[in-house]
Amino acid sequence: MKKLLISIGILSVLSTGFMALNTYRRVVNTSFGPGEHLEYRVHYGFLNAAEAIVDVSPTLYKVNDRPCYRVNVDGRTVGAFDLVTRIRDTWRSYIDTAAILPQKFYTNLQENNYRKEENITFNHETNTVKAEERTEKDVFKVPDNVHDLISGYYFLRTIDFNRIGNGQVLEVPAFYDDTVYNMKVRYRGKAVIKTKQGKINVIKLNPVLPSNKLFKEEESIRIFVSDDANKVPVKVEVDFWVGAMVMDLRQNSGLKQPLKFF
Q1: Does the CA dihedral 224-227-230-234 come out positive or negative?
Q2: Which of 45, 65, 194, 232 is most buried as measured by Cβ atoms within 10 A of its Cβ?
Q3: Regarding predicted confidence, which is higher, 21 or 6?
Q4: pLDDT tens string 185-211
Q5: What is the 3-state secondary structure (H, E, C) of 92-128?
Q6: Tens of pLDDT along 81-125?
Q7: pTM here?
Q8: What is the chain's Cα-based Rg?
Q9: Is there a contact between 121 and 103 (Cβ–Cβ < 8 Å)?
Q10: Three-class SS of residue 45?
Q11: Which of helix, strand or coil describes residue 29?
Q12: What sign does the dihedral 120-122-123-129 (CA atoms) show?
């Protein structure tokens, strides 16, 4: 009997250790990988307003002893808009390749005279995040499987929208600027849209926005995502109280499969 109890105790310790090593979820990802490159043009009416480049590094990085994709998002104003509001922003996320969760998030914002540079490290075992440069409160409690703003989008690319009902809302917890947000995106079915490269089949998504003074209504942002394995945004429309802005995919490379225009 004593030997049996000892054996059960040993198995319990081993199984607890095994579970601790496997606390991460596993997400099947067939939508993106190293080397993906996307370039976008943002225009306000007929005026070019900004450009954005989204890159997945061709090599993997190890962060918190986990292999990660490094995703860079660089945005800048151009032309006349650059004279009025000068923006040079960089966001960088290190996304766990197996769990599609952030391990580290970096921001470098230069918007007119405003400056902000920060590194955030995620600990998914303790459900905390740490702001590395802070001297005051620097550790924040977060929910399970929390995202940053970039990794949340890449997680949505792993969703099989054929299993989602029209009008269904997907919710993803995200941490940014000391706050946990419940990012909500409503699936609006499928359609065909026209782009400069031709027509393309898309999935329609609407981020659900709280009431605010910037956007006209709850679903003022419309995202059109390629209806294929890639699920990359090919067009984004934004309605403000004054005017509208459109973001178009200008160039791409390194996708899982070529975009199919017709």
Answers
A1: negative
A2: 232
A3: 21
A4: 999 999 999 999 999 999 999 998 766
A5: EEEEECCCCCEEEEEEEEEECCEEEEEEEEEECCCCE
A6: 999 899 999 999 999 999 999 999 999 999 999 999 999 999 999
A7: 0.87
A8: 21
A9: yes
A10: coil
A11: coil
A12: positive
